[in-house]
Amino acid sequence: MTIKTTCIGAWPKPAYVRLPDWFNIPGGLDGADLTGRWKKAMEDLGPDAEAIISRGIQEVVQEQVRAGIDIPTDGEVPRENYIHYHCRHLNGFDFVNLTNREMRGGACAANLPTISGPVSVKQLFAVEDWKRAQAYTDRPVKFTMPGPMTVSDTSADAHYHDPARLGADIADALNREVLALAEAGCRYIQIDEPLFARKPAEALDYGFDNLERAFHGCPRHIERTVHMCCGYPDRLDHPDYPKADPGAYLEIADAVEASSIDAVSVEDAHRHNDLHLLEHFRTTKVIFGLVAIAKSRVEGVDEIRERLLQVLAHIDRDRLIAAPDCGLGLLSRDLVVSKLNNLCAAARSV
To answer: Could you give the C-alpha distances from 336 to 193, 293, 330, in angstroms and in order?
Structure first.
């Protein structure tokens, strides 16, 4: 049985898709700068904007397929970042009156959209985005969205003053998209919760409840995935950028196994885990990060293969999926293709 492969989300945008994103704009999470630039860039692309974005998605999907990825994504080509793109489709988020606040445990600060009223769906969009990407391949395209804790940590709450209740309303809005995707035929739905690794106590207190709420009613044939990376740097090849505590995965592993989640995505390439972690996942699939997304060094096929063999001593082959650590937007297109070619070759060789 060949080990399956997938990507996590972001891919470097083709040069002709002249949209800003948080990988190439300093202070990329800054709601004022990035969203304003995104709107201006869409205006500059003119009436052909959607056709240009669709061409970019087609190119990104097909690059993944050529590399050998079994479950590609749309590369988040239309998005300025995976969080605020979604928030712009929700009521309650003010992108004009921003609030500067620390985030990611004090790792950075940004001017963020302010939550000024109840959060609810303003416009469903995920199905159309997924269909656009799925049209370019016969392989199943995975759709990704930000989780409730991650959305709340990347905005400024001036309305709820209760993170669990705020998360519940965000989860209800996400659930509308999840159910619509499932009805449309999307088989792989991923909710990104890097905050689970940053704040494991809060994840156990209310984060998992709201994650379940986001997937509530999702048919069992849909693979429910949660991605939990440990943080991006501000630039490529940053020697010592702040990461989540290395013990965080272990703190929440049993809660993942007890949940309705089918697959959990963890990073390992940037910083290796104690592989006994994997033994906590007795039925859950593990999407295992095998190439680093913030280092320009290309991991060799033999290196990746050796790590896969070590991993297989701790998890069944049919529950292991090979992937990058996280989204690939910090890397050049050449580096991305080289890393994924080697990843897929190693997965096929084991």
So the answer is: 23, 9, 9
Q: What is the mean pLDDT of residues 300-329?
A: 97
279 versus 240: which is more confidently predicted?
279
Q: Are 75 and 11 in contact (CB under 8 A)?
A: yes
Instruction: Please list, in sequence order, all residues whose beta carbon lies within 8 angstroms of the beta carbon of residue 12, skipping any fewer than 6 positions away.
Output: 23, 328, 329, 331, 332, 333, 336
Count other Cβ atoms within 10 Å, centred on residue 137.
15
Cα 326 from Cα 214, distance rounded (Å): 21
Confidence of residue 81 (pLDDT cuts 50, 70, 90): confident
Tokens of 86: 């979604």
| Confidence band for 309, pLDDT divided at 50, 70 and 90 | very high
Cβ(20)–Cβ(38) below 8 Å: yes
The rounded distance, in Å, linking the Cα atoms of 85 and 139 is 25
